[in-house]
């Protein structure tokens, strides 16, 4: 039930009809999940029919049980009760033992929690982590009983990964810790498990690989959620920056690593420079210092996507597509010496270097015109702009 739903019998996978979300399959899942302890008939009915108006729930459940038994035999399984009624409890038919990964996961975690020593606890946690192949019954993620069980299992899994990861790092087994965190990040990509992946890589001295993973994660958060990296990710970036200063190398090798490479679907060095939000922060702070010394004008522009009435776009799918087109519009409209970054799904920040105040409106119109070419005439863009010198005076 973890990461999907399959039934295997005697080494062969069994298909119970065309849909894995059918009511009789949910009935099996609910009862099998509770194992030998069983679950009350009332709880089963509430779980199955919580959103439906059924005149006689008891009859509906009895018919469902009858259909389930018939379907099991048709799928090639032996004739059996599969679900029995014992003193008002629905329990597994003992004639055909059932092993459920989600139930086994919880059992291993309980054994680990009752262990006396750390090594014994770790052995149970390792087995439990291997069983957790994904979210609980993802095809049924909107069902109330699945949501509740999924949330509980996720919390237990988080406890497992955090304790086991700390234990492995104490043992200096950074490779195993990295694999553990990688699995967690694959299952829950937006829970900051990448921070622990990066930390494991740093502990192994793989600083460049840590940087690659950081950039990939920042892009994921920006593209999928439209948000800048979290506080822990930014702290991770600072830790990496400090570690990389201790990594000696030949100047020519370093120069080749610093070179700007061609991006997929684009040409080398064409248009404005797109960077991650943390890199944009560094560029902003550097340009602020250069401006103080050279007197060169630098402006910060905020471009915001709006609808034709000037309001925020509520349709998230439409906003995501238009955000990608705005990125292309900025890329094509600005000079090589300008930089920009995605701040949210509806906003981009732009650094305009060596631009006059009166030219900022010209830049905005150029971006807006290109956006309309790419997204259609109803695409609208608002902007705010301020000089870095004015911004610094306001902050002072």
Offer a concise description of the structure:
With 396 residues, the protein is α+β, with helices and mostly antiparallel strands. The chain contains 15 helices and ten strands. The chain starts with 6 loop residues before the first strand and ends with a helix.
Fold and architecture overview:
With 396 residues, the protein is an alpha+beta fold. It has three domains: 86 residues, Arc Repressor Mutant, subunit A, CATH 1.10.10.10; 144 residues, Serine Threonine Protein Phosphatase 5, Tetratricopeptide repeat, CATH 1.25.40.10; 123 residues, Reverse transcriptase/Diguanylate cyclase domain (Alpha-Beta Plaits), CATH 3.30.70.270. Helices cover 56% and strands 12% of the residues. It has 15 helices and ten strands. It has a five-stranded mixed sheet with strand order 6-8-9-7-10, with helices on both faces. The protein has a three-stranded antiparallel sheet with strand order 3-5-4. Helix 4 packs antiparallel against helix 5 and helix 7 packs antiparallel against helix 8. The chain starts with 6 loop residues before the first strand and ends with a helix. About 2% of the residues have low confidence.
Summarize the helices and strands and which ones pair or pack:
Elements: E1 7-9, E2 12-14, H1 23-34, E3 39-40, H2 41-49, H3 57-74, E4 83-86, E5 89-92, H4 101-114, H5 118-131, H6 144-170, H7 174-187, H8 193-203, H9 207-225, H10 231-244, H11 251-258, E6 273-274, H12 277-294, E7 298-306, H13 316-333, E8 339-344, E9 347-353, H14 357-375, E10 380-387, H15 388-395
Helix pairs in contact: 1-3, 4-5, 5-6, 6-7, 7-8, 8-9, 8-10, 9-10, 13-14
Organism: Hungatella hathewayi
GO molecular function: DNA binding
Pfam families: BTAD
């Amino acid at each position: 039930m973890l990461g999907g739903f399959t039934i295997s019998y005697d080494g062969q996978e069994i298909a119970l009809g065309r849909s894995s979300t059918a009511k009789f399959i949910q009935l099996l899942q609910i009862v099998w999940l509770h194992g030998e302890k069983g679950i009350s008939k009332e709880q089963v009915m509430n779980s199955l029919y919580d959103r439906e108006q059924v005149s006689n729930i008891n009859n509906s459940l009895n018919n469902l049980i009858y259909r389930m038994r018939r379907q099991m035999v048709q799928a090639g399984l032996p004739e059996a009760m599969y679900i029995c009624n014992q003193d008002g409890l629905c329990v597994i038919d003992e004639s055909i033992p059932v092993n459920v990964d989600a139930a086994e996961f919880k059992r291993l975690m309980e054994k680990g929690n009752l262990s006396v020593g750390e090594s014994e606890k770790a052995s149970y946690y390792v087995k439990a982590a291997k069983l957790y192949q994904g979210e609980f019954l993802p095809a049924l993620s909107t069902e109330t009983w699945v949501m509740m069980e999924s949330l509980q299992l996720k919390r237990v899994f988080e406890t497992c990964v955090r304790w086991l990861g700390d234990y492995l790092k104490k043992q200096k087994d950074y490779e195993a810790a990295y694999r553990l965190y990688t699995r967690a990040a694959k299952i829950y990509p937006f829970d900051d498990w990448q921070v622990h992946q990066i930390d494991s890589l740093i502990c192994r001295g793989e600083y460049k690989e840590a940087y690659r993973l950081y950039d990939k994660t920042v892009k994921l958060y920006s593209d999928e959620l439209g948000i800048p990296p979290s506080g822990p990710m930014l702290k991770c970036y600072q830790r990496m920056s400090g570690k990389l200063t201790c990594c000696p190398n030949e100047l020519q090798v370093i120069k080749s690593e610093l070179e700007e490479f061609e991006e997929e679907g684009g040409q080398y060095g064409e248009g404005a420079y797109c960077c991650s939000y943390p890199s944009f922060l560094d560029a902003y702070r550097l340009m602020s210092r250069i401006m103080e010394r050279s007197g060169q004008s630098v402006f910060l522009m905020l471009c915001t996507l709006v609808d034709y009435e000037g309001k925020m776009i509520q349709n998230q799918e439409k906003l995501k597509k238009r955000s990608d087109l705005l990125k292309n519009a900025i890329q094509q409209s600005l000079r090589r010496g300008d930089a920009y970054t995605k701040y949210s799904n509806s906003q981009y920040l732009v650094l305009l270097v060596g631009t006059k105040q009166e030219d900022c409106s010209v830049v905005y119109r150029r971006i807006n015109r290109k956006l309309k070419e790419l997204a259609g005439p109803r695409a609208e863009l608002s902007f705010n702009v301020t000089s870095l010198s004015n911004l610094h005076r306001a902050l002072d």
